[in-house]
Amino acid sequence: MRKKLISILLGAAMVLSLAACGGSGGAAKIESTDAAPAEATQESAEAVEGAAGDDFHIGIVTGSVSQSEDDRRGAEAFQAKYGEENVTLAIYPDNFTEELETTIQTIVNLSDDPKMKAIIVNQAIPGTTEAFRQIKEKRPDIICIAGESHEDLPEIGSAADLVVNNDFVARGYLMIKTAHDLGCDTFVHISFPRHMSYETMSRRVAVMKEACKEFGMKFEMETAPDPTTDVGVPGAQAYILEHVEEWIKKYGTNSAYFCTNDAHTEPLLKQLLKFGGYFIEADLPSPLMGYPGALGLDLTEEAGDFQKILAKVEKAVVDAGGEGRFGTWAYSYGYTVSAGLAEHARNVILGKSELCDIDAISEAYGVFSPGAEWNGSNYTNVDTGVKADNTFLIYQDTYIMGNPGHYMGATKVEVPEKYFTVK
């Protein structure tokens, strides 16, 4: 079995020597514990910080709130923890495909700060590889980390020091299995040509198709507008709003839906709640991904507390008749990646962790997803069969709202070996 279980242990101190990415290639199991109270965790972190004395800066680049709210909020949470004087935030353009040079320059500009020691880009959209190469030419001391790369993983892995993506291989299988377990007979994939040109997404589609055959389900594909084109986010969302009812009539109420774009998620959820159908989890899952807007929720009082956020979202889903049909990850993926990778970078700079130790990465994620269970492994190049030392694929267990038991046990499922070579 290629997967290596990562269960988060919140608050444990790791004292490891700083080392370059090498042959750790995974990690032994870390047992979960109950999350410590937020106040105690914060006090502990502040004590460690005060003793270490941060004399360095960390930069985090994300999309805007309209395109990638969770990514941005995670960056803001890390900045709030360590201060604006130590953490610099930047935003790449919404239509980054048309503003490649601006995207590259936005990332590279962070390296002008003489105290900058690590730069995290989440999501690592096109242009990130070139930006990292330019940074390394003038500042090889800066640690370059890519979260959720849109560029081919071998390509960005050649420029980045560390790459962490959601596990598009395992999840491609597990989302189909979960839909089958919930009684679905059809899986509908919604995307557009730009996303389908990415290895991560095209391979996931191939895995989904094969999994549907295994579970006796139909696999269907629908095309929706790309929000980075002239139609923008409003036009892309309007398209989804207009077509979901048509899709439900076409594929039936036992169909499950998945979209590859964050901006499509809110209107998709809104219409599925109205017309029927299932939603296993978002491309980058979170109880904040699409649900608040679709349900008209004000989560101001719950901000930053994902247990309270999930409880409020779940109640609203059940009240709207979506019990047992809508899923997520209990903790936001985008939020955790932005904040967790920055936390990991800080630990590496302080000499507490090795850069490419998956246990150390998971522990840093655990600061922002206490008690969550994850699974992951090194990325394997499907063409060469070679595992990358500096590139990891991860996923969290699926939580179905209103469903008895809630968690589907996805992290404990053994994904058949054949799916790791499907393309």
Would you kindly provide a brief summary of this structure?
The protein is built from 14 helices and 13 strands. Helix 2 packs parallel to helix 13 and helix 13 crosses helix 14.
Describe this protein's structure.
By secondary structure, the chain is an alpha/beta fold. It is built from 14 helices and 13 strands. Helix 3 runs parallel beside helix 4. It starts with a strand and ends in a 23-residue tail after the last strand.
Topology:
Layout: E1 4-7, H1 38-52, E2 57-62, H2 65-82, E3 87-91, H3 100-109, E4 116-124, H4 128-138, E5 143-149, H5 153-157, E6 162-166, H6 168-181, E7 186-191, H7 193-196, H8 199-214, E8 218-223, H9 232-251, E9 255-259, H10 262-275, H11 291-295, H12 306-319, E10 327-328, H13 333-349, H14 358-366, E11 373-380, E12 387-396, E13 399-400
Parallel strand pairs: 2-3, 2-4, 4-5, 5-6, 6-12, 7-8, 7-9
Antiparallel strand pairs: 1-11, 10-13, 11-12
Helix pairs in contact: 2-13, 3-4, 6-8, 9-10, 13-14
Helix share bin: 40-55%
Q: What Rg is obtained from the alpha carbons, in whole angstroms?
A: 20 Å
How many H/I helices? Answer: 14
Count the strands?
A: 13
Largest sheet report: 8 strands, mixed
Indicate the structural class: alpha/beta
Average pLDDT, rounded to a whole number, is 87
Strand order of the largest sheet: 1-11-12-6-5-4-2-3
Uncertain segments: 1-20, 22-52
Order of helices and strands: EHEHEHEHEHEHEHHEHEHHHEHHEEE
Termini separation (Å)? 19 Å
Shape: globular
